What does this fold into?
Amino acid sequence: MKETDETVTRTFRVNKEWDKALQEQADWQGISVSTLIDQIVRRYVIAERFQFNAPVVSIENKAFQKIIQTLEDEEIQKIGSETGKILPEEELLRRGLPQEYDSFVWIMKEVFGRYGGWFSVDHYKTETENVLHLRHYLGIKWSTYLQHFFTAMFTKDLDIITKTETREESVTFYIPNKQIKKNKRLFLSH
It folds into this structure.
């Protein structure tokens, strides 16, 4: 989803109590109400409006962690691989985005990361590779799920083989730049 720096002025009415809550939240964050509303609208446009037709369950991290701790490693690996072959592509299709590397990374960072609450992402590029470092607080079983989920996504949808490092509260994907360039050429030739 391409974002621009262009803005549009909108005027709308809001319930007095909601305005009070917005002002309190903006003050607490040290930002303007306008900035807060922009963040709320961004979240809606990028994530929430697509959840109406795709049921989503919201659950506290501690409860979710207890659930995944009951699963065997093989089950988590299998579930991660199966869902990683389906969900990222579905997210792109819902948004009308091309099935290419940059779109999948955007979905990873924005939809699953920032707005899905699955993890926080550090993304940087070196001369030889792209590095995506996913940080979370849900333990090794969640790291295992994420490793298999995104490995399946990169393999199935992009024909990219990643090197991964999995830790208690993080997973790091190392993606060779030459595979990304090869992937972009494949999409351009279609």
